[in-house]
Amino acid sequence: MVPYGTKTWKPVDFSDLSLLRKKNRVIGMSFPRQDAALGLEPSILTVLPDGDNVEYDPINRLYNDEDVLFYLCSVYISGYDEFVIWAGKHDKNKIVVGGYQPTTFPEEFTSHAWKVVRGPCDNFYVTIAQEGQVVDGICTYDRLPRRDLYDIYKLNQQIIPDKRVEDVVVSINTSLGCSQTPACDFCCTPIMCPKLISKPIDLVTKEAQALAIFKPRFCFIRDENFTMQADWQRRLAIIHEALPETKLYLFASANTITSQLKADYMVRKGVYMVCLGLEDPTKDYAKNRNLDMVASYLKNSGIYMYLSFIVNPLEIVGKEAGEAFYTKLMERFRELAPEMVCGNFLMPFRGTGLWDKYFQFVGPEDYRYYDSKTPFLVRNPVLREKMKFYMFWYQWQYFTSDFYRDNVRRFDTGDTLHLRFEELYREFMPRYERIWNVRA
Questions:
Q1: Is there a domain that residue 257 lies in?
Q2: What pLDDT score was predicted for residue 287?
Q3: Residue 286's pLDDT is what?
Q4: For residue 96, what are the contacts with CB-CB under 8 A and spacing of at least 6?
């Protein structure tokens, strides 16, 4: 192996960007590494510039620094440790970092990177041309993500109803941020992008048309709250026109789907599933005050509903508290009858309404657990594992119930949702059946 370079890096002359783009390798990476299990196109693709010298590495290999001009690293909380280890083996002066963790804790990256980019960014060279080590991302909304660098067919699996392993999924963003007022106390979106910013319509049109080459069966509209945009119907029509045979699914909030007419419009424009946040079923959120009515709108239109929920591990300690929470959750499932549910443990993000209440429980050693599936606020390892099991168990009980079969849909269809929960069942049950005498 060629030894890693130790030469002192000299600042680049940004006056000739065309020359800069042709010089040496520019390599994009996502931390944690992108693989089939993660299932979404990496955010780094919106930053990677044009040029034949640009690459995307989904497995974050080690490189000879002599061959590389820049490493562009998108770092999420759970990828922090992986990034630090990788960065320690490379020239700091060639590393540029961005993403959620560098935005919220830029001081943690100044010893590892030449530039730390805060907030959203889609213009790499103009962004890093700013003076200083910590800079604000610059968005110009005039270019498409570099999907030519990424194997969508292999690396963009999704766990959703009716998707077969071989089905192709693509995704698109038409906006950034969220203007929900008041902001949800658990949500980190306003930290990355504190206001709703819609991409220009012509760029949405170009990107949707560019996705048609993949002949996707599904397309995920990844906006934090797609229907919050005043012109969401126009944007949906554009995507459907470009992908007329593709099933669309999207994030929304109940307070933005205010009539049956809107649900009917969605289904006419190719929407097959809407992802809504049920959140903590024991609390009231302004965005969810008409959730039951919206559920009926979607059912009437034949649109699937995907409900995500949050479990605060500190509030379900003890048999009585745990049973009360999950009893309420199952009641809401039966009332709303969603086709898919997905549980997430509470993850306090810096700067959110929850942070002051929980920051004393969170240290750098917890970063790797920001995967929504680990109740890291609970320090007892046995209790932590038991909570992880019951998160799975109640979802399994819902999907395999007579109620789901008779009133929602068949679960055992061999789609990716079914296959994933079968996999989880095989992982959990041998252990927990023995320890806690749980029976299927």
A1: yes
A2: 84
A3: 80
A4: 70, 71, 72, 73, 113, 114, 115, 117, 124, 128
Which residues, at least 6 apart from 419, have a Cβ–Cβ distance to it below 8 Å?
165
Note the pLDDT of residue 4. Answer: 27
Q: Which residue range forms the structural domain that includes residue 212?
A: 157-436
Which residues of the chain fall below pLDDT 70?
1-23, 36-39, 180-183, 433-440
346 and 420 part of one domain:
yes
First to last CA, the chain: 52
- In angstroms, rounded to a whole number, what is the distance separating the alpha carbons of residues 208 and 253? 23
- 199 and 304: one domain? yes
Asked, for residue 148, whether it belongs to a domain, the answer is no
Per-residue pLDDT, 429: 86
Angle between helices 291-301 and 260-268 (to 10 degrees): 40
Residue 437: HSE in the Cβ half-sphere, 13 Å Cα cutoff: 0
Q: What is the pLDDT of residue 434?
A: 60
- Residue 404 dihedral angles phi and psi, to the nearest 5°: -65, -45
Q: Give dist(CA 345, CA 309) in Å, integer.
A: 8
Q: What Rg value do the Cα atoms of the chain yield, rounded?
A: 23
- Kindly state whether residues 128 and 235 are assigned to the same domain: no
Amino acid at 239: I
Residues 107 and 189 in one domain: no
Instruction: Check whether residue 27 and residue 95 sit in a common domain.
Output: yes
255 and 316 co-located in one domain: yes
Structure confidence at residue 189 (pLDDT): 75
Q: What is the tally of structural domains in the chain?
A: 2
The reply to whether 131 and 176 lie within a common domain is no
Give the per-residue pLDDT at 81.
94
One domain, residues 338 and 371: yes
**pTM greater than the 0.85 cutoff:** yes
Say whether 305 sits in a helix, a strand or coil. strand
